Amino acid sequence: MPAAFSFFAERPAMRFAQNAEGARPLIMVAPDGLEAHLATLPPAQSAFVRAQGFGAAAGTVALLPGALGVEGALLGLGDPQAREKTRFALSSAATALPEGAWKLHGDLAQDALHEAALGWLLAGYRFARYAPDAPPKARLVCPDGLDRAHLEAMAAGEAFTRDLINTPASDMGPDELEGAARLLAERHAARVTTISGEDLLTQNFPMIHAVGRASPRTPRLIDLRWGDSGPALTLVGKGVCFDTGGLNLKPGASMGLMKKDMGGAATVLGLAHMIMQTGAKLRLRVLIPAVENSVSGDSFRPGDILTSRKGLSVEVNNTDAEGRLVLADALALADEDRPDLLLCMATLTGAARVALGPDLPPFFTDDEALAAALSQAAHDSADPLWRMPFWAAYESKIEPGIADLDNAPSGGMAGSITAALFLRRFVTQTPRFAHFDIYGWQPASAPARPKGGVGQGARAIFTALPEVLS
């Protein structure tokens, strides 16, 4: 990787101001209270605000001049309905304000204040590995009553995830993904082991090997462990560093974003950073099957039947449904350890995008308490999730007759559900299990989310963990 690039580079724009002394006021104003507030300002300031055309729309800023320059600013809150439609709407202030420390003033509900502060930090992200891109220089003082360490850990974990996804496959293959996991482990005194190449066969990870064997970039299973006390949490992330579709080759238009097919791995690594950074009292394990799904004379084929680590046979009806194959072996290993909670994250199906779009990832679980905690945490952390069912009536769709399981049922209906049902077959000893079918990509720039790689679900999980593992 270029010498100037580091996944853990210091990012001042994604941290709160260290000192509140001298911070200029950023006064929050709703549209219906604007005129009343302008009446309290000196005439020159109120006239200047009006001259800027400021109407207090959500995220808009009006500077307040003073004898020595800008002495403060107004931040528009917009109406509540508008803010509901646009996550992190107030984060636009981070790029609109001049350099220096700023402190929020005014009334805002605690959940809205949390979202505003988090959005400000996330708006500071820039991916500058290949071209310069200066971050904003305005810094926010952490609002009173918020957990600074928690917010900064979420922002740092999100930045790590975004960096991993945004890095093209030329610089992010299985070896480089392992290197990123090792950097993370070194930072937090965690331990990493890997099983790679032909050792995947001798140590019984046949489906990881089958998917990755066509590529000159050696497939592997990355295993990170941290912590020696507390409940056991295992995270499994899909690490397909590039997906050509294999012999069922993707068309060019569908291949263009496939550097993001390791988004599940990137997201669990970002989540792991949040957990370790805040010193959570748990035993963490992260498993990443890291492969490149390539085309060569050694590619696995449509019609092949693979025997998984679990002993279940799988008929390959589409080599482009490879993610569930590598995840199956990793989930089987995780299940043998019987953790208190097992979570799987993957950029798995287009069907999930058809159902819910790019901004709302589904999750699947049979655990009602876990589902409720995740749904509440998704709201609290501005990290939306939507529960979908392990619909038992569709089990027959993944049973081809010639083998125990089918990796790509025909018909095309309920693709996200049948993929989730497939994965559940490999988790038989761990009662608390959830699968997240994420997109991992922001198609167009939005407040606090530039176009490109993005974490989904990690903040919600991080927020829910204290309740879920108590």
Summary of the model, kept short:
The chain is built from 16 helices and 19 strands. By secondary structure, it is an alpha/beta fold.
Give an overview in words.
With 470 residues, the protein is an alpha/beta fold. 33% of the residues lie in helices and 20% in strands. It has 16 helices and 19 strands. It has helices spanning 34-38, 43-51, 80-85, 93-96, 110-122, 148-166, 174-188, 199-202, 206-212, 252-255, 263-277, 323-336, 350-356, 368-380, 415-424, 458-468; strands at 24-29, 61-66, 69-76, 100-105, 138-140, 191-196, 220-226, 232-237, 239-243, 283-293, 305-307, 313-315, 341-346, 362-365, 386-388, 405-406, 433-437, 441-442, 452-453. It is elongated and about 80 Å long. The mean pLDDT is 96. Belongs to the peptidase M17 family. This is M17 family metallopeptidase.
Summary keywords:
alpha/beta, nine-stranded mixed β-sheet, Peptidase_M17_C, 33% helix, aminopeptidase, M17 family metallopeptidase, 470 residues, Leucine_aapep/pepB, Leucine Aminopeptidase, subunit E, domain 1, five-stranded mixed β-sheet
